[in-house]
Design brief:
By secondary structure, this protein is of the alpha+beta class. It contains 3 helices and 3 strands.
Length: 128
C-alpha cells in the first residue's frame, strides 16, 4: 500500500513539475520575449545608478532561476542594462511539486526498509 502511494506521488509530482516548467516557458515566450517585455514586463521599480526608460532598448530572455521571463532594460544613460527578473510564484510552485515527488520517494524507501526488517525478523525466528 505504501509503495503504490509513493509511486503515485512520484508520478503526480514529476508530471506537475514538468507542466509548471512548460507553462512558464510557453507564457514567457509566446509572442516573442522582447515584445512581451515591452508589453507585460517585468519592469524594475527602482533601478540602481540610473533610471531605466521603456523607450530604450529591451531584451527578453527565459530565466531558469527563478522560473519565468526576465527583461534587460537599457539604462537611460545608455551605459548598460538593468535586469528585471520574474517573481518567485512559479518557482515555488515547481518546488512544491518536486517536494511531492520527494515524499513519494521517501514513502517507498520507508516501505522497503520496513519490508527488509520484517523479512530479517522472520528469518531469525525460523532459525531459532
Amino acid at each position: 500500500m505504501t509503495r503504490s502511494i509513493g509511486i503515485s506521488l512520484i508520478v503526480v509530482g514529476i508530471i506537475a513539475a514538468l507542466c509548471v516548467v512548460a507553462l512558464a516557458w510557453l507564457s514567457a515566450t509566446y509572442g516573442g520575449l522582447d515584445y512581451k517585455c515591452l508589453v507585460e514586463g517585468p519592469r524594475r521599480a527602482s533601478a540602481p545608478f540610473a533610471v531605466t526608460s521603456e523607450a530604450m532598448r529591451v531584451h527578453g530572455s527565459f530565466s531558469w532561476w527563478p522560473l519565468g521571463r526576465a527583461c534587460n532594460w537599457q539604462r537611460a544613460d545608455g551605459q548598460s542594462f538593468v535586469m528585471a527578473g520574474p517573481g518567485w510564484t512559479t518557482t515555488i510552485t515547481f518546488l512544491l511539486c518536486a517536494a511531492v515527488a520527494s515524499v513519494g520517494g521517501l514513502l517507498i524507501a520507508i516501505g522497503n526498509a520496513r519490508t527488509r526488517s520484517l523479512a530479517a525478523a522472520g528469518h531469525q525466528g525460523i532459525r531459532g
